[in-house]
Amino acid sequence: MTTVSRTEEQAPPTRSWPVLLVVVCAQMLIWLDTSVLNVAVSTLADPAEGLGATPAELEWVASSYTLVFAGALFAGGALADRFGPRATLLAGLALFGAASAAGAFAPDAGWLIVARAFMGAGSALLMPATLSVIVQSTPEEKRTWAIAIWSSSSGLGVAVGPVVGGLLLDHFWWGSVFLANVPIVALCLAGVATVVPVLKSPGRRVLDLPGLALSVLGLGGVVYGIIELGNGRTWYGAHVLLPLVLGGALLAAFVAGQRRSPAPSLDLRLFRQPGFTAGSVVLLITFMALAGHLFYAAFYLQGPRGLSPSEAGTVMIAAAVGVVLGSQASPAMSRLLSARWTIAAGVLATAATYAAYLWLDERTPIPVIAALLWVQGFGMGLVGTPVTAVMMRGVPPQLTGAGSAVNSVTRQVGGTLGVAMAGSILSAVYRDRMADTALPVGPQGLSAEAAAQARTSAETARSLAGSLRLPELAAAADRAFLDAMYSATFWTAVLAFVGFVTAVVGLRARGVNSERERD
Fold first, then answer.
1. Which DSSP symbol is given to 447?
2. Of 178, 124, 416, 408, whose CA–CA distance to 291 is shortest?
3. Is 205 a residue whose pLDDT tops 60?
């Protein structure tokens, strides 16, 4: 007999579709902004059209968002459990909209990094609240179906983001891609206030502020060390080793403190559920690989391939279509193959597409790239729904916000580490290749300062090549970038294959596969 909690009884069946639509719209906003940034990074690096951001600054533009997002998700889950997901949704939307407007008019990369951090805080309030609404207000027999629609919103955001962002960048200044969030936020605020019911958790959790601080500072230290390593620092240098060690120590202190805390941000009881730990690891690895891949893929499309932002966004629609189709196919595949093998198949498909980038160059046909993106998206779609269902199955109603936060935080921590890893490899290898390249320095070529900038950033090198009419400089930058991309994609593929092995081995638990019919 299924016990229906007081929170579930407050969601009238006649309002289920409007509630789901509003929740999906709010969730889609997170992915829309992320996919827009993937198209905009090349423009932001351009000193003429953007902010002239360095590779390290671009990594922080992406990482500041995901870093705060990941660190504050535990607080977002606790707030959703304490004050209800409706109130948390409204607060998150308001903060996200205000930070988007501030980022649109950023005078430099530093300002944009700070604005992106506040956008991450708003997203941290949004994501656990959206999943909490679905879990609390949907009957158990329909929960996987609702989660599938929730997961598909990521595909819709990924689909719309690059196209809209590309069109905006082709016709307006770079800040328009962030300003476009504001009207969407306004619509979502009106929808949440109108149709989302008040859903309060049976228990009221206390915020764990020390734990939140330890998690953010610890993860920040690790990410800073990885980025500094890619900026030419030796691994044993103080700029790399000190933040890595300190960050690791703070994260260890965070986990140890959660064991003793009466109101932990990371409730370790969740990991007693079958499949929760393995599902979390699989999500962490797959999103780490995906975020790293998208970081260098955007530069590849707009760099060596020479596509405009709107053209690059159009090509990336293939990945979004794959995510949507994969998300919709995953429940049926889970019934046929089990959740374990559906997840494993999805991760293996993404690993294969990452490895295929080892054979791409400046002449690869665009349809081939689109096909790879479609397979990659389909694989990610197969992973998202069943792994989320496996993780959330058996989570007590009073911990749905905490469980949602863990599900979301693994994605964002993975994304943060993935961008840092791929960006560091990309920067280090590019700089190494350009150091061995003879550049046209002199009265008819580059100044010493310009040559140093060209050896640091491929986008700067191409901009200088265009303004000074030095096609050999652009060709050298493209060759160095491709070598850097091959190094980054090799390790991305290896990481994804580790995720495949983790899914096959870690999801063998009886509790994961014995409920195939429910999946």
1. -
2. 416
3. no
What are the structure tokens assigned to 510, written together? Answer: 């009886």
The SS3 assignment for 426 reads helix
Q: Which two tokens stand for residue 341?
A: 């093998």
d(CA 377, CA 291): 12
Non-local CB neighbours of 502 within 8 Å, separated by 6+ positions: 278, 281, 282, 285
Which of 249, 280, 278, 373 minimizes the C-alpha distance to 318?
373
Q: How far apart are the C-alpha atoms of 218 and 247, rounded to whole Å?
A: 4
- Rounded Cα distance between 109 and 124, Å, is 22
Taking the C-alpha atoms of residue 367 and residue 364, their distance in angstroms, rounded to an integer, is 9
DSSP 263: S
Strand partners, 53: none
**CA pair distance 108, 111, nearest whole angstrom:** 6
Q: What is the amino acid identity at position 394?
A: G
Q: What is the DSSP letter of 316?
A: T
Question: Which pLDDT value is given to residue 196?
Answer: 72
Average model confidence (pLDDT) across the chain: 76
Q: How many CA atoms lie less than 13 Å away from 67 in the CB half-sphere? A: 27
Of 77, 144, 126, residue with least CA distance to 403: 77
Q: How far apart are CA 222 and CA 42, in angstroms?
A: 25
Q: Residues with Cβ < 8 Å from 44, sequence gap 6 or more?
A: 50, 51, 53, 58, 61, 109, 112, 174
Reported in sequence order, the residue ranges of 40-122 that DSSP labels E, i.e. its strands, are: none
Cα distances from 160 to residues 286, 308, 320, in angstroms, run 22, 16, 8
3-state secondary structure of 338: coil
Coil vs helix vs strand at 278: helix
- Residue 115 in this model has a pLDDT that exceeds 60: yes
403 within 8 A of 75, measured Cβ to Cβ: no
What 3-state class would DSSP assign to 75?
Answer: helix
For 427, the token pair is: 């920067």
Give, in degrees to the nearest 5, the angle at Cα 36 between 478 and 402: 120
- Rounded CA separation 413/120 (Å): 12
Q: Would you say 64 and 113 are in contact if contact means Cβ atoms under 8 Å apart?
A: yes
What per-residue confidence (pLDDT) applies to 152?
62
pLDDT at 207: 64
pTM for this entry? 0.69
Model confidence at 265, pLDDT cuts 50, 70, 90, reads low
Cα end-to-end distance, the chain, whole Å? 18
Q: How many residues does the chain have?
A: 519
Task: Transcribe 104-123 into DSSP letters.
Answer: HT-SSHHHHHHHHHHHHHHH
Mean pLDDT of 301-308: 82
Q: How many CB atoms lie within 10 A of CB 240?
A: 20
User: Tokens in use for 199?
Assistant: 């859903």
**CA–CA dist 173, 161 (Å, integer):** 16
Least confident of 128-132, 188-192, 284-288, 438-442: 438-442
Phi, psi of 441 (to 5 degrees): -105, 130
